[in-house]
Design a protein that fits this description.
Elements (H helix, E strand, L loop, with lengths): L1 E7 L9 E6 L14 H13 L6 E5 L5 E6 L6 H17 L4 E5 L11 H12 L14 E7 L4 H5 L1 H19 L7 H9 L7 E5 L1 H7 L2 H6 L8 E8 L9 E11 L19 H15 L5 E11 L10 E4 L5 E4 L6 H16 L3 E6 L4 H6 L4 E5 L2 H14 L3 E3 L17 E2 L8 H10 L7 E5 L5 E2 L9 E2 L4 H11 L2
Parallel strand pairs: 1-6, 2-4, 2-5, 5-6, 9-10, 9-13, 12-16, 13-17, 14-15
Antiparallel strand pairs: 3-4, 7-8, 8-10, 11-12, 14-17, 18-19
Length: about 475
């Protein structure tokens, strides 16, 4: 579905056919009376007396040529609540097969300086996402929205910001939605290389280079696949005058995860194409920063592998040496994401010496047991960074919840024959011990780990997500950067 938006500073000479106005919570029309004649206002009042005022959206025919759509908007809504309202309105448009409408933005009773219409349309556009490129019959529908009124000026000013977030989020959604026979690590690299046109420096390291670099933890995961493994860096230099260390973001990119020799059950294994969602969020974020020309220096690092049970596959019981020199006993080949991240984290800290490192990964099923599809798990060695991430998540409604890291959990990950083992079989706390594993590959940089296993994909359509890949994390991390680092 394609959304075309026209911003107009007046209502124009043509009376709109589908006319959208915002009203107060009790459907009082006092703020919109000026848009209608006395007779029309009387008629609208009569309609409202008979209507279901518990609904958020009411529509009715004013005459044979004109439909009125009233949207109930509470005073002082948070930005994410306005976006959710826009998403609900998109569902209404789709259900009623509306092709063109006009929104009277001057009917909005919002605080001066609050971009209500911008957030409303932002939510609407994010909700309209569809992944249909493999359907033989596509409906190339265009919905035209005319935003009428003087209150559009702030929205026009913020248009690039919203566009950047929409394109970055949808780029992440596209990557996650691709079938694994298409988006193998090599094809993933090719798509990331296209970001160079936005001014992003993209560097891809192949298996030969990774072996020389000593990234045997990452490489071990991909040994069973015929598809080559890669590590890719995405550098955005938006503030060339400021030589501060960059902000860094690391993503797990397991393009398909069978579990390897520790094979997963067949049921729902098709969902393991989503196991690269952390890397997709990193790519979408860096793309967003480049599109809106963010005045910040940032780097994304993604490890791209495929975990297959081939003849050369890594075995339970193998020991590998990571990039930072630590040895890892691989007790379960299905605990592979942490092996990819171990090398990517160490490499990022050593090469870029960043101000902080935030990694994202669909790392554990245990985080879904703990938090469901409402919160991502947050683990951090730095209270200040953790607090900022939490507040950014509250602002955009991409929520995180902090769980503990503690040295007492380390004993569950200590190996009797290597420096560390990749899974805890005895003590529970699956998400925490996974984070404890990752922490051993951070030397001293402020670091946060986001376990997004419950957030990257949703079978039910909710809030801004149409169902399927969500792009969770792009807007969260953009808010973090915009609020605290730009």
């Amino acid at each position: 579905m394609s959304i075309k938006i026209n911003y107009l500073n007046n209502n124009g000479s043509k009376s709109p056919n589908n006319y959208v106005l915002f009203v107060e919570e009790n459907f009082s029309i006092s703020t919109i009376k000026k848009n209608f004649s006395n007779t029309e206002n009387s008629y609208i009042n009569e309609i409202l007396k008979k209507g279901d005022l518990k609904k958020k959206i009411l529509s009715f025919d004013l005459n044979s040529k004109k439909k009125i759509i009233l949207i109930k908007a509470k005073k002082n809504l948070e930005s994410f609540e306005v976006e959710n309202l826009g998403a609900e309105f998109y569902n209404f448009i789709k259900k009623n097969h509306i092709k063109e409408l006009s929104i009277n933005s001057d009917s909005i009773n919002a605080k001066p300086g609050k971009d209500f219409i911008g957030h409303f349309l932002h939510g609407l556009k994010l909700k309209s996402y569809e992944f249909n490129i493999y359907k033989s019959k596509k409906e190339n529908k265009i919905i035209t929205i005319n935003a009428l009124g003087k209150k559009n000026n702030l929205t026009i000013k913020n248009e690039l910001k919203f566009k950047a977030l929409e394109e970055g989020t949808n780029f992440a959604r596209d990557l996650v939605s691709e079938p694994p026979n298409v988006l193998n690590p090599k094809e993933y690299v090719n798509r990331l290389l296209k970001l160079r046109k936005l001014g992003i420096k993209v560097t891809a390291y192949n298996e030969s280079q990774l072996k020389k670099m000593g990234m045997h933890s990452l490489l071990g995961v991909g040994r069973g696949s015929v598809n080559e493994s890669f590590l890719v860096t995405l550098e955005w230099e938006g503030n060339k005058k400021n030589k501060k260390a960059p902000l860094s973001f690391v993503g797990k990119g397991v393009c398909f995860d069978t579990g390897g020799i520790s094979l997963k059950p067949a049921k729902f294994m098709e969902e393991m194409k989503y196991d690269m969602a952390g890397s997709a969020v990193v790519a979408g974020l860096i793309q967003s920063l480049a599109i809106r020309k963010a005045k910040i220096n940032a780097v994304g690092v993604v490890g791209l592998v495929e975990n297959m049970p081939g003849g050369n596959a890594q075995r339970p019981g193998d020991i590998v040496k990571a990039y930072n020199g630590k040895t890892i006993e691989v007790l379960n080949t299905d605990a592979e994401g942490r092996l990819v991240l171990a090398d990517a984290l160490s490499f990022t800290e050593k090469k870029f010496k960043p101000r902080f490192i935030i990694d994202l990964a669909t790392l554990t099923g245990a985080i879904i047991v703990a938090l469901g599809e409402e919160y991502a798990g947050l683990f951090s060695n730095n209270d200040n960074l953790s607090d900022k991430i939490f507040k950014a998540g509250e602002k955009v409604n991409e929520k995180v919840w902090r769980l503990p890291l503690h040295k007492n959990y380390d004993k569950l990950m200590n190996s009797p024959i290597a420096d560390i083992q990749n899974i805890n079989y005895s003590g529970g706390a699956g998400s925490i011990t996974a984070a404890q594993f990752l922490q051993r590959f951070i030397y001293k940089t402020p670091w946060a780990h986001l376990d997004i296993a419950g957030m990257a994909f949703s079978k039910k359509a909710a809030n801004l997500n149409p169902g399927g890949a969500t792009g969770f994390g792009v807007r969260l991390l953009n808010q973090l950067i915009e609020k605290y680092y730009e």
